[in-house]
Amino acid sequence: MSTDPYDRLDAPALRALLAQRDAQLAEQAAGMEEWMHAVSHDLRAPLRHITSYGPLVRELLQESGLPADAQQEALAFLDTMDQSARRMGRMLEGLLALSRIARAPLRREAVDLAALVEQVRASLAEPAQGRSVQWQIAPDLPTVQGDVTLLRQMLTELLANALKFTRGRESACIAVGWERGADGQFALTVQDNGAGFNPAQAAGLFGIFQRLHRESEFEGVGTGLALVRAVARRHGGQVQATAVPGEGCTVRVSWPGSGATPFFE
Q1: Helices 224-234, 68-103: inter-axial angle, 10-degree rounding
Q2: What is the pLDDT of residues 49-70, one digit of tens each?
Q3: What CA–CA distance (Å, rounded) separates 150 from 156?
Q4: pLDDT tens sequence across 131-158
Q5: CA–CA distances in Å: residue 17 to residues 21, 31, 95, 232
Q6: pLDDT tens, 199-228?
Q7: What is the reported pTM?
Q8: DSSP code for 247
Q9: Inter-axis angle of helices 68-103 and 44-62, to 10 degrees?
């Protein structure tokens, strides 16, 4: 005889219990989103004070009459403080962006994915300037049902990441394609021949503030792929990445092809 209390529930009671738990989880998620928004928003004001008073302290130091070596040491401390404050500012901006993705209403419409990819690629012309970058964009990218603002943000993060991590290549290659799986799912793929990463670290790749490379090698605070995951989840999808260290990375964003949250037309 089963000792699981759920086995003694009839179907209506079980559905009611599941609905109650879903509501509780939704309430907890909403509370977390509100907390994240409040924290990231309210912390920006004191952070602005830190970054704005730094130059004033620097001027006072230069007029203080302190010995030169003491001045240089104090100025070095100020530089570290300023760099850390600016990094924290970028982290807060990332939290705010995640909060906006979670809180904004999802406005589904027909989105020409080929046109959107081209718009995003064109917007990244400056980071690609002076480099040999070969873009391989699938000619048959489909029209999708989704929020164009969120999809643009997701594609910007994916393509900007590919550009960043191929920076050390004499000739960068970035491919954007799509595929349909046997299970009916559709997937958008972004592949590059950049730095790649250790596959053993892939589990934490899409977490907030997670970085697999030193900041001295590649700038950033680790919010980009967290944003990609948030956009995918808003559309009922998921994201994963595979890589070979020193050879490149492939990010795959997949959505159900049918059902309650259809993505591709």
Answers
A1: 10
A2: 788 888 888 888 887 878 888 8
A3: 10
A4: 889 999 999 999 888 999 999 999 999 9
A5: 6, 21, 33, 28
A6: 877 777 887 777 766 665 666 667 888 999
A7: 0.71
A8: T
A9: 170
E strand or H helix at 23, and its extent?
Answer: helix 11-42
Looking at residue 191, its pLDDT comes to 95
- Which amino acid would we find at residue 110? A
Residue 23's identity, in one-letter code, is A
Pair type for strands 238-244 and 172-180: unpaired
**Given 3.20.20, 1.10.1740, 4.10.990, 1.10.287, which CATH number is that of 1-103?**
1.10.287
| Helix/strand/coil (H/E/C) assignment for every residue in 83-109 | HHHHHHHHHHHHHHHHHHHHHCCCCCE
One-letter identity of residue 241: A
Q: Can you tell me the distance from the alpha carbon of 261 to that of 265, in angstroms, rounded to the nearest whole number?
A: 11
Distances from the Cα of 156 to the Cαs of 49, 132, 195, in angstroms?
31, 19, 19
DSSP 201: G
Q: Where are the domains of the chain?
A: 1-103, 109-255
Q: Which uninterrupted H or E stretch holds 125?
A: helix 125-128
What span, in angstroms and rounded, lies between the C-alpha atoms of 122 and 116? Answer: 10
Determine how β-strand 248-255 pairs with β-strand 186-192: antiparallel
246 conformational bin, left if phi > 0, alpha if psi -120 to 50, beta if neither: left
Q: Which two tokens stand for residue 159?
A: 């393509």
10 Å CB burial of residue 124 (0-12, 13-18, 19+) is: middle
Match domain 109-255 to its CATH number in 3.30.565.10, 3.10.20.30, 3.90.420.10, 3.40.1350.10. Answer: 3.30.565.10
Tell me the pairing of strands 109-112 and 133-137: unpaired
